[in-house]
């Protein structure tokens, strides 16, 4: 009989899903797939089967289903942002915090004409606490220009009403998609609760069968991290030291930008390389994400563009006011706890210089300044709402990693993981001692919270 109507099964494609969720058949020994085995094929007969193993497999399959949706939403935002940049005659910058660029100048002295309030505060502080009004402005330790480090590829500001409406529409759409992605991430946190019904003893019944496979090999979760912007975190995994771009005998060619570890590769990088941890069909997926733009590129591109537009809330005078507010606040904080708000005598000159230098270094990134200035406005805009959605998604990913750590710790304690990592490796993924661009997709948005001040007259 020829069907003339669409069924639920056909629309959802549930047969393919159900068949993909097949499990090895029961037997005496765990099956070894034959040489011609392909993903989706039935496993061969045989295999010592453990009841609790089904829960472990099903839970990780559920993770992967939701990871696919998160990737879908993030990809839509990134691709549409790239198209918007092109339509505005620009090109979205592909950020790399560990590669020097022509747009980054580590030493760029403060121009008192551009920052008159900041210059006045530095002169007064230098005279009052160091006995020299030029001490904080000139020389090797002089205050540098705020925002001297920045990305490239700015775009023209939307001017006409129709351009502004289109920009707001895009931002609103992107915000909704990232809100969905964040909720999808958070919805999977409860999966760990289900998985934690396994006792450590029950997990040990089948744990050895995982060797050397590991959750580290989740292709889609690595895609999510790279799409978020964590390129620096994964560079040693996709391009290990001592690696080669030549394929091993009998293996497919490596995708562009990916290296195969060799005998010269450090052992820890070999085991954590995507080449080792993932099947060949996954290599191109992660390598492609690594080559493409990320959500971090979009966020920093918007912040950099907003700073370049130089009108409205990001005017030069407001930026001067903003930096001066934070400089004065840091000076007050330096003497906080001394019993008086300002010292009467005995200032530690080196300590005071270092405190000012810390503010200088923290304000080096122009995108951080732009994010903080925007955040000081209590009135939400489509841009600030989108940036907030990005920060919340970033936080959800960090929360997911932290929840994963708690689960692993509850199952195997300090043992090494099946892939060689374990709790020590996982803790590094959320360690505050790491550089922020290794653990957070948008360090500028997080650091900006440090510099939000109450505006004078507000």
How are the SSEs placed, and which strands pair?
Blueprint lengths: L7 H5 L1 H7 L32 H35 L28 H15 L30 H27 L1 H7 L4 H5 L14 H10 L2 H8 L28 H6 L1 H4 L2 H12 L3 H15 L6 H19 L14 H14 L3 H10 L6 H31 L10 H6 L7 H4 L3 H6 L10
- The residue ranges in which pLDDT falls below 50 over 5 or more consecutive positions are none
Could you estimate the helical fraction of the residues in percent? 40-55%
By DSSP (H or I, 4+ residues per run), the number of helices equals 20
Q: Termini distance?
A: 74 Å
* Average of the residue pLDDT scores: 83
- The helix/strand class is mainly alpha
- What is the element string, with H for helices and E for strands? HHHHHHHHHHHHHHHHHHHH
Strand proportion, as a percent range, falls in under 5%
Number of domains: 2
Radius of gyration: 27 Å
Largest sheet: none
Shape: globular
């Amino acid at each position: 009989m020829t069907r003339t109507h669409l069924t639920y099964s056909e629309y959802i494609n549930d047969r393919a899903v159900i068949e993909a969720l097949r499990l090895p058949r029961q037997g005496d020994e765990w099956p070894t797939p034959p040489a011609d085995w392909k993903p989706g094929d039935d496993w061969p007969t045989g295999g010592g089967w453990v009841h609790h193993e089904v829960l472990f497999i099903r839970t990780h399959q559920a993770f992967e289903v939701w990871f696919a949706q998160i990737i879908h939403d993030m990809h839509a935002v990134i691709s549409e942002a790239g198209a918007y940049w092109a339509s505005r005659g620009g090109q979205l910058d592909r950020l790399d915090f560990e590669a020097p660029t022509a747009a980054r100048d580590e030493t760029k002295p403060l121009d008192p004409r551009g920052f008159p309030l900041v210059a006045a505060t530095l002169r007064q502080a230098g005279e009052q606490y160091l006995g020299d009004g030029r001490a904080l402005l000139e020389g090797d330790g002089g205050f540098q220009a705020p925002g001297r480090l920045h990305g490239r590829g700015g775009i023209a500001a939307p001017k006409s009403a129709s351009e502004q409406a289109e920009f707001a529409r895009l931002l609103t759409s992107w915000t909704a998609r990232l809100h969905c992605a964040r909720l999808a991430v958070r919805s999977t946190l409860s999966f760990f609760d289900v998985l934690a019904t396994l006792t450590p003893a029950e997990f040990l019944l089948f744990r050895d069968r995982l060797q050397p496979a590991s959750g580290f090999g989740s292709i889609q979760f690595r895609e999510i991290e790279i799409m978020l912007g964590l390129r620096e975190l994964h560079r040693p995994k996709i391009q290990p030291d001592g690696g080669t771009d030549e394929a091993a005998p009998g293996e497919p060619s490596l995708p562009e930008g990916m290296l195969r570890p060799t005998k010269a590769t450090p052992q820890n990088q070999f085991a954590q390389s995507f080449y080792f941890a993932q099947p060949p069909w996954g290599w191109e997926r992660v390598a492609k994400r690594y080559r493409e733009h990320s959500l971090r590129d979009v966020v920093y591109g918007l912040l950099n563009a907003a700073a370049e537009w130089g009108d409205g809330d990001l005017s030069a005078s407001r930026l001067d006011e903003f930096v001066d507010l934070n400089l004065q606040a840091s000076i007050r904080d330096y003497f906080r706890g001394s019993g008086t708000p300002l010292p009467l005598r005995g200032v530690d000159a080196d300590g005071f210089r270092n405190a000012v230098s810390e503010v200088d270094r923290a304000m080096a990134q122009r995108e951080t300044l732009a994010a903080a200035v925007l955040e000081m406005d209590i009135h939400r805009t489509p841009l600030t709402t989108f940036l907030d959605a990005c920060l919340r998604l970033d936080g959800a990913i960090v929360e997911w990693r932290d929840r994963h750590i708690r689960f692993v710790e509850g199952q195997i304690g300090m043992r090494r993981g099946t892939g060689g990592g374990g709790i020590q490796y996982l803790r590094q993924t959320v360690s505050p001692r790491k550089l922020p661009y290794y653990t957070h997709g948008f360090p500028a948005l997080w650091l900006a919270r440090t510099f939000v001040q109450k505006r004078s007259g507000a």
